[in-house]
Each structure stands twice: as structure tokens, then as C-alpha cells.
């Protein structure tokens, strides 16, 4: 196995179990690793400290283990078994009302670079690192064994998530089974998952609990679900007894999916309408009919450089909602940009509120659900932030 030696002092973050090694920390290699290969990491004093997947780029190694253990079928099975046990403990797996959950959340499950979402009998697996791509067949085998009949299909979807530098020719496709039956269930509500063409793995699993909270606020309200994608918040609002629900997304495909999903749960229900339109245009023209608004935009900042613009985007967007929402209205507002901190986001929303001059109270501070756990040694894993606000 190729060995990698760190520069003196660069082992500090690894002693605190942080799972990334940046390329600048490397002194030299003993051998020439291929992208995606497992390498052993040694300190400048030649002591073993970690092992993980090597990749060309700023994050050179993603740590799989801080112990010297073989990375084989048994290793993947052990890690996946812990991940499944956690999902059973929190009540999202083996729950007849809910067969949709994230089984593996990268660093949060000590499997950096790997995402696995479960939709009924299908697991959608996504590699974000060359190493997870290289090991995909063995991981799929481990997954099939650990899931022990819970899933019949594994769809691999990594064409857009792998680093372009890696010459890996990823192919999307089934690694197990091949069923196109794609209806899954979240908290008793049904939806179609488009794992072939949809965003992420096909559904935004991370909003499950926030949607459930929204349901509790929906009774007799006029709801705007802005950035609706597959309409998750919309069908929860309908079950919660909303007067009307309007779903908006700039993507016509998202609007089709939303209509299909609402139809699946509430066939022929006239309370729902969906519009394919740009958010800012819609917010400008919509008037003051809503007293419950959801703003769940895409990540405005994917990199640190884009932070300033992103914060301006959040401010503008929220300012529109504060300007238009009815007195006594409730605003659910989110940011899923990892580089935007909780404080950044709160300041942007605060500024928007101040611009409107309205009295605003924070009712809930939201985050990602427990099946998107944050590794305590990797605080970067916390990405979803939300505020529920009462607007006087
Ligand atoms: N709330 C959704 C997830 C939202 S993802 C859920 O619960 O599943 C973000 C969505 O914003 C995407 O569907 C994307 O098509 C949409 N979007 C991006 N830019 C937009 C814009 N300018 N106006 C309206 N929608 C936009």
C-alpha cells in the first residue's frame, strides 16, 4: 500500500479525528498512488496516523479509518451496519409510515465521499470522491448484505458529483436489481422519486422534519411554497388543512413533479396550484394573499468566494417575503449553503426584517434531521439552517 508522509506538525487535525488531509500537508509519498486508491498516512516521525482514499485536489485524502485495518467488504459492512442501526434508533428505518431516509451521510457516518438515500426498495448511491467510485461494487455488495432484504435495487448516480479531474468515466445505472417502481413514502405521504434525472438523489430527504413542523402550522392558512422542487412542503401543508397551497419553481420539470405528487396524495384537490416561474418575479407580482410562506432556495454559495453575493441574495429574497406576508403570517426560511454559517444566515434575515420595519419573532431554529448526522470532529458537515418566524 502506498504510504504518505505528512509535514511536521500537520498531524494535529488528525489527532482530533478531522477526516480530511489537505494536499499542502503532505511531505512526500512512498510510491505513486492512483486516484481513488487507499493510502496509509504517517506523521513526519513515521508513526501511522490514518488511512483513506487518495485523490488529486485540495482534499488529498479522505480518512476512512484512524486504525490500521483492511478496507474490504467486512469494513464496509461494519460501517453500513452502524449507519443502519442509527437510522433504526431514530425511527426512520423499519417504520411502516416512512421508507425514505438517508442511510449514509458522508463524513457524518465516517464514510467521507459517500451518500446513500433509501427510497422504499431502492437505495440511491452517490460517490463524491474518486475512492468511493473505485470501491462502489464492493460497497454495493456490503449494502445488499447489511440491508438484508430491505432493498431490491441499488441505483448508482455519480455522473455529476465526481471531480472532473478524475478520469473515471462514471456511469449512472443499477448495481443491483433494476425496478422502475419509484413511489416512496415519507411520514405517510407518497411521492415519486426521479433518481434517473432528478436533483441530488431524486428527493430532498433533509427537509422531512421541517415539513412535518410546517404541517402543524398550516391549518386554514394560504400557503406559498417557493422553490418547491418535488412539492414536499406542499403536500404536508395540504394534509395540515391549508386553505390553499401555491407551489412555485423556475423549473417546469419540478412543477410537473409537484403536480404529480400532490395528485398522488390528494387527487383532484382544488386547493393546490403550481406555477413555473422565477422566484423574484413571482414574489413581485403575488400581492398579499399569503400568511404562510416557505423559502427553500438552492445553495446560493457553493464556495467561500461567493459568500457575499449569497448573503445579499438571502437578504433580498427574505425582504420580499417580509414585505408581502400577511400580518400574523409565518415564514419558514432556509439556507442549505454549507459555507453560510448559522450566524451569517441569521444576520441576512435580520437585515431583511429590519428593512421591512415589521415586528418579527423567531419561533424555531431548524437544522438537518438526525439521518444527516454531523460528525463531531467535522463541523463542516452542518449545512442546513432554517428559521421559523412570526411576522406581526
Ligand atoms: N423545497 C424543496 C427543495 C428546493 S431545491 C424540497 O423540499 O424538496 C431548490 C429549487 O429551487 C430547485 O427545484 C430549483 O429548480 C429551484 N430554483 C432555482 N432557482 C430558482 C429561481 N430563480 N426561481 C424559482 N425557483 C428556482
Description:
With 392 residues, this protein is an alpha/beta fold. The chain has three domains: 63 residues, Archaeosine Trna-guanine Transglycosylase, Chain: A, domain 4; 115 residues, Transcription Regulator spoIIAA (2-Layer Sandwich); 188 residues, Vaccinia Virus protein VP39 (Rossmann fold, 3-Layer(aba) Sandwich), CATH 3.40.50. The strands form four sheets. It has a seven-stranded mixed beta sheet with strand order 16-15-14-17-18-20-19, with helices on both faces. Strand 7 and strand 8 form a beta hairpin. The chain starts with a strand and ends with a strand. 45% of the residues are buried. The structure holds S-adenosyl-L-homocysteine. S-adenosyl-L-homocysteine binds next to helix 6.
Which molecules are bound besides the chains? Answer: S-adenosyl-L-homocysteine
Q: Kindly, what is the distance between the CA atoms of the first and last residues, rounded to a whole number of angstroms?
A: 63 Å
* Overall shape: globular
Helix and strand content put the structural class at alpha/beta
Give the strand order of the largest sheet, numbering strands 1, 2, ... along the chain.
16-15-14-17-18-20-19
Beta strand count: 20
Helical amount among residues, as a percent range? 25-40%
Task: Give Rg in angstroms.
Answer: 22 Å
Amino acid at each position: 500500500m502506498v504510504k504518505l508522509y505528512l509535514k511536521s506538525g500537520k498531524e494535529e487535525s488528525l489527532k482530533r479525528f478531522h477526516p480530511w488531509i489537505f494536499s499542502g500537508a503532505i511531505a512526500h509519498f512512498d510510491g505513486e498512488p492512483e486516484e481513488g486508491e487507499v493510502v496509509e498516512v504517517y506523521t513526519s516521525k513515521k508513526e501511522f496516523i490514518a488511512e483513506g482514499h487518495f485523490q488529486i485536489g485540495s482534499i488529498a485524502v479522505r480518512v476512512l479509518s484512524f486504525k490500521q485495518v483492511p478496507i474490504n467488504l467486512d469494513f464496509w459492512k461494519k460501517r453500513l451496519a452502524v449507519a443502519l442501526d442509527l437510522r433504526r434508533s431514530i425511527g426512520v428505518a423499519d417504520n411502516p409510515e416512512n421508507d425514505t431516509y438517508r442511510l449514509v451521510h458522508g463524513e457524518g457516518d465516517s464514510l467521507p465521499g459517500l451518500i446513500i438515500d433509501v427510497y422504499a426498495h431502492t437505495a440511491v448511491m452517490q460517490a463524491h470522491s474518486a475512492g468511493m467510485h473505485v470501491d462502489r461494487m464492493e460497497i454495493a455488495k456490503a449494502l445488499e448484505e447489511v440491508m438484508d432484504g430491505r432493498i431490491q435495487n441499488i441505483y448508482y448516480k455519480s455522473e455529476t458529483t465526481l471531480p472532473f479531474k478524475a478520469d473515471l468515466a462514471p456511469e449512472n445505472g443499477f448495481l443491483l436489481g433494476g425496478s422502475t417502481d419509484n413511489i416512496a413514502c415519507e411520514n405517510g405521504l407518497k411521492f415519486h422519486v426521479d433518481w434517473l434525472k432528478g436533483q441530488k438523489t431524486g428527493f430532498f430527504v433533509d427537509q422531512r422534519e421541517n415539513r412535518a413542523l410546517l404541517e402543524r402550522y398550516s391549518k386554514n392558512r394560504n400557503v406559498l411554497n417557493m422553490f418547491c422542487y418535488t412539492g414536499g412542503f406542499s403536500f404536508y401543508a395540504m394534509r395540515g388543512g391549508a386553505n390553499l397551497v401555491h407551489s412555485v419553481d423556475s423549473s417546469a420539470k419540478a412543477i410537473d413533479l409537484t403536480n404529480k405528487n400532490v395528485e398522488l396524495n390528494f387527487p383532484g384537490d382544488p386547493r393546490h396550484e403550481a406555477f413555473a416561474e422565477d422566484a423574484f418575479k413571482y414574489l413581485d407580482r403575488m400581492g398579499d394573499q399569503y400568511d404562510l410562506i416557505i423559502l427553500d432556495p438552492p445553495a446560493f454559495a457553493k464556495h467561500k468566494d461567493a459568500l457575499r453575493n449569497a448573503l445579499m441574495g438571502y437578504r433580498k429574497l427574505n425582504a420580499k417575503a417580509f414585505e408581502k406576508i400577511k400580518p400574523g403570517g409565518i415564514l419558514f426560511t432556509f439556507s442549505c449553503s454549507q459555507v453560510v454559517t448559522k450566524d451569517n444566515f441569521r444576520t441576512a434575515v435580520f437585515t431583511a426584517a429590519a428593512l421591512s420595519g415589521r415586528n418579527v419573532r423567531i419561533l424555531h431554529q431548524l437544522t438537518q434531521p438526525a439521518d444527516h448526522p454531523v460528525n463531531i470532529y467535522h463541523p463542516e458537515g452542518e449545512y442546513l439552517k432554517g428559521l421559523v418566524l412570526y411576522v406581526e
